Task: inverse folding
């Protein structure tokens, strides 16, 4: 694959980018709430923009995913561009759906920013990448390969109804770009995750006679201690970061306000794994931990239940899509970069799993995701568009005039 690009093309697409339209589109999608499984309104808005931007095909599938296609000449590699259109609950965020433009100085940054839930995570990223694709067409250029644009649903709840279902339909590409926030850097992976429940059993009794029962909440205490000790001995990955385990919820039942000693206590655990580990090895370690507690605690019984598995993502630095991303970034902003990794998981892992080598590159600082201060810088959006456009041309190729 020829990943060289004509410098004149870069200047042309930069001039063709509709910055004002992009900013307005970003504000528009932020003003439409789109919690997981409630994305229909923003999906229709996104699809409407894709049609206006000149995508050749646009559809909303039965799960609510927006899929657009910009047809190339048919003689170059194709690129799948992915981002999600759902967001987490706003919590106590003030005016979460205002989409207002504010001075980023309040966060120690420079320039204007769009604030609101879903700005950097990640509806603005989705809309900006659509405008980046459109700018290539507006510049009068035609790509050799196709662009497959997927704005998917329910990513925040790890649902298979998103990009996984799109891929299962048979929609593919040669390479992938995930536009989750990376601060404009090139990311090539992240840790894997298993989300599991450890259900500790006891025996009910009237709360006035606790000795007649076996309190599952108390039975869970040595399990929690064992998990804390287990966490201290996990390893580290020079690229992906540390392997971790943490308790994300503890709930006992019955819990309906009656005077009953609980006979169940469910401990939900998030286990992040790195290279050299697998989902299966993590499950085996947790099962062994449960067995160890059972040996030392009288009447201890506990069931293991796997809820979800988010695969580890890692694309070799020498893969053409990684090299193209690094070269595009250097051309656009004049700075060298070394491949990095996300601390959280992204849908790019499922693209990789399906045989679509995928690189991560997006505007926004991931530290603001899910926080009351979520925002994205406008300069960050335009700069990343400049990188994306060059990456797209390097991967798909441009029809020579």
Result:
């Amino acid at each position: 694959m020829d990943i060289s690009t004509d410098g004149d093309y870069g200047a042309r697409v930069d001039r063709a980018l509709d910055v004002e339209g992009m900013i307005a589109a970003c504000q528009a999608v932020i003003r439409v709430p789109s919690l997981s499984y409630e994305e229909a309104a923003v999906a229709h808005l996104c699809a409407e923009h894709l049609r206006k931007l000149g995508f050749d095909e646009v559809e909303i599938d039965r799960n609510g995913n927006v899929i657009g296609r910009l047809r190339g000449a048919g003689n170059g590699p194709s690129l799948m561009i992915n981002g999600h259109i759902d967001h987490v609950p706003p919590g106590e965020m003030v005016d979460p759906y205002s989409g207002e433009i504010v001075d980023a100085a309040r966060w120690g940054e420079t320039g204007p920013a769009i604030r609101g839930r879903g700005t950097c995570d990640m509806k603005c990223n989705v809309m900006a990448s659509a405008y980046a694709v459109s700018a290539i067409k507006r510049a009068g250029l035609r790509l050799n390969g196709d662009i497959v644009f997927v704005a998917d649903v329910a990513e925040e709840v790890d649902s298979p109804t998103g990009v996984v279902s799109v891929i299962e339909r048979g929609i593919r590409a040669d390479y992938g770009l995930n536009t989750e926030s990376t601060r404009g850097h090139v990311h090539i992976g992240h840790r894997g995750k298993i989300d599991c429940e450890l259900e500790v059993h006891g025996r009910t009794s009237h709360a006035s006679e606790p000795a007649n029962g076996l309190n599952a909440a108390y039975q869970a205490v040595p399990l929690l201690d064992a998990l804390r000790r287990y966490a201290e001995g996990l390893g580290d990955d020079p690229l992906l970061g540390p392997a971790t385990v943490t308790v994300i919820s503890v709930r006992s039942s019955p819990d309906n306000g009656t005077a009953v000693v609980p006979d169940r206590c469910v401990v939900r655990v998030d286990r992040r794994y790195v290279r050299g580990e697998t989902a299966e090895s993590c499950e085996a370690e947790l099962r062994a931990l449960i067995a160890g507690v059972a040996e030392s605690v009288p009447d201890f019984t506990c069931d293991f239940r796997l809820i979800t598995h988010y695969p580890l993502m890692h694309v070799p630095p020498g893969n053409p899509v990684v090299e193209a991303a690094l070269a595009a970034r250097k051309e656009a902003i004049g700075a060298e970069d070394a491949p990095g990794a996300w601390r959280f998981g992204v849908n790019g892992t499922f693209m990789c799993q399906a045989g679509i080598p995928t690189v991560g590159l997006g505007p926004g600082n991931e530290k603001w995701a899910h926080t009351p201060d979520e925002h994205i810088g406008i300069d960050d959006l335009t700069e990343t568009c400049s990188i994306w456009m060059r990456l797209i041309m390097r991967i798909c190729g441009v029809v020579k005039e």
Summary: Residues 44 and 227 are 45 Å apart (CA to CA). The longest strand covers residues 192-201.
